[in-house]
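Notes, p. 3: input format for complexes.
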Amino acid sequence: MNSSQIRQTFLDFFQSKQHQVIPSASLVIKNDPTLMFTNAGMNQFKDLFLGNASIKYPRIADTQKCLRVSGKHNDLEEVGVDTYHHTLFEMLGNWSFGDYFKKEAIEWAWELLIGVYKIPQDRLYVTVFEGSKEDQLDFDEESYNHWAKYISKDRIINGSKKDNFWEMGDTGPCGPCSEIHIDIRDEVERKKTDGKSLVNKGHPQVIEIWNLVFMEFNRLANTSLQKLPAKHVDTGMGFERLCMVLQGKKSSYDTDIFQPVIQSIEKISAKKYGKEEKTDIAMRVISDHLRAISFSIADGQLPSNTGAGYVIRRILRRAIRYGYQSLALKEPFIFSLVPVLTDQMGKAFPELTKQKSLIEKVIKEEEASFFKTLETGIQRINAIINFKKLDSANKIIAGEHAFELYDTYGFPLDLTILIAREEGFRVDVDEFNKCMAEQKSRSRKATAVDTDDWIELKKTNAVEFVGYDTLEAKVQIVKYRKVKGKGKEHYQLVLDKTPFYAESGGQVGDSGWLDQIEIVTTKKENNLIVHYTDDELPADLTKIFNAKVDHQKRELTANNHSATHLLHAALRKVLGTHVEQRGSLVCADYLRFDFSHFAAVTNQKLREIEKIVNEKIWKNIKLDKRVMPLLEAKKLGAMALFGEKYGDEVRVVTIEPEFSVELCGGTHVEYTGEIGFFIINEETAVASGIRRIEARTAKGAFDYIHEQFIVPSEELKGIFKKTLKDVPAHVISLIEENSQLKKKVELLNKEKAKQIKIDLSQKIKSVNGINFIAEKIELDSAEAIKDLSFELRNQVQNLVMVIGAEVKGKPMISIIISDNLVREKNLNAGTIVRELAKEIQGGGGGQAFYATAGGNDSQGLLKALEKAKSFIS
Ligand code: SER
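Output follows (873 residues plus serine):
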């Protein structure tokens, strides 16, 4: 079977057991502060397990895209080095929500593997949970007894909490699990060592393929276990591993999932897979990471400098580095593999095909910019080595520097060691490891739980949002929890119903009051609407509270949200229907809208867009908002958001059916007239092919016009004593006058420089065979100092000249060195100037024969010159 048939067989099998087959959820997690990416099939069902959402299908089957690159489940460093780990993988799952349990899960797993996939029984082992004293849990006898019906008892292995108790993260749904392992070694090997002794021992050919988890508990922040309202089944089978087994391969990279991409890498690099370990690892890394990056971009997560975006950027950089180091690929190439991937996976995951050109563009741009970074890194490491050479006793590169090279420039440690070794240097690896460990702990802390457990006051599993129709409601607190942290106490509250809009779809959360308690913001967490407060809570929490939304903030935000829809539609009208929303922020002060478009938007087009939006505002159109089935909304041509997950019922917001119809849960104005006025204040680039518009409406627009235009124009009128209309012509004449004056000053400076040059040449001293001079001069022009330096260098041999001066009120140092000294004495003006610049609190650089530095502390100039003198002598 090829991989598509294997996937389909799984889904068909469970469909025949009355499971509803559903598509994979997005890889990018939006409403769960404990996770960045989907790392297990069960993430999207967390609410169902916890009892926070109602169950629609008690049995489900799917294949879920998972990414294990951060937090509790992180395989990144193993990927490529071995032959069966992946960053992105598919997890085939069958699910029971309060329906069947251990008996059926085990029976069907066996039936599928043996009866359908025809895996020989004597290759399989299973594990069951042995129990845990710490958690006061018993041996899982029930699973053991079910397994004993199908497999000989000597193939059932007891496993500890580490291997046989599955947990999603530090907190959350969990339960004992039973794993199925397979031995794919050849006959000879199998005879030599009993497979049973290799289960869970990291052997690359005796591996886990399927994990059946019996969800029964919720791990609380205080580490204890709480029983879930019902018992569930969560199974996860590694799709790539299953394909490896069924296709008779020893590595998942040899299956038809990875081979097309690996073959393309062979072509690009003119190297063969399977010949040399170093090359093989690089090809595995690249073929794996290509998938992780492409799927993430398709699901809306672009590489960036923070959070989840940064994780993606680092994965891509890891792939580029391996290509650079092991395959000698020194130009962007990963983007060219995207079509091979979309051909292979596009059918099962249509989002890949849909976003193909975006994925290519983003990867190509990232690659190009990273190659630049690599070059800068090489310059940086050379600079470090050159500077150290001035002090020949110390031939060690600090771990901190090696870490900077790793973290900022993407240099793996072995590359730094290699370059250092060529220059006779060593790297402090222990210190490097220390820096690395500190960074890991920082990143783990970033996703660590920082709240206590919920304290439940009232049972309820659905929270009603009443804020579309009202900004005030009588409510009760159903649960609350304390946010950990020093000093002032912060709380989070969940209400039985709430008028507060929780941050989502780019719109900020509401603030307001719960009686006297101030609510600072509102956010969604899984299926809950969580209200944040920094206030003390009253003694009686069970009473009825009056919840009141800050209506001014809400109205201003609604103006901006409705204006965002108008802007979206106007953009498509003016620029074309390739414009798609890529992100947005809607708050009280302004709106920000990111969209796909491949060039800067001209001023003329921006004014056109503004005009369309304002005309719709002046028309005072009534907005139509209604809930309908997703299919019906699609028929209306409603625009859906890229990477967003929608239920079967959706809310549709329409501003004239032929102008703007969008799926949207946000809060909006009643009539467009309320928006008042719309003005774009900025248009910029965010990433390759993505532009950003920032705009203001209503009071925000008024304030903006006031600050940016009215106040400055009043000031200009005052300064120039002219009407505003005459100011531009006047400014032009001033600019002309100024440039003539500048020319005159330059001439005078040149005259002055001649005199200074004569003075300087008389002060030259011979030190260690060098004609040396270090002087502070009065010359207020960097250009003149440069000319003077070059002229003296032409006249005087063996010259090292260090000049200090104040240019436009700031200290400046310039160093010039005769070429023969650069060669023979290994002197480097760039290195020296950086060292001297410390005295003037500044920095600089340049070439080996000429370099300059600027700074902030003129007082330090004399000290810098002294330092130069003692260095030369
Ligand atoms: N949740 C389990 C896992 O991720 C089984 O799906 O391994």
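The chain has 25 helices and 37 strands.
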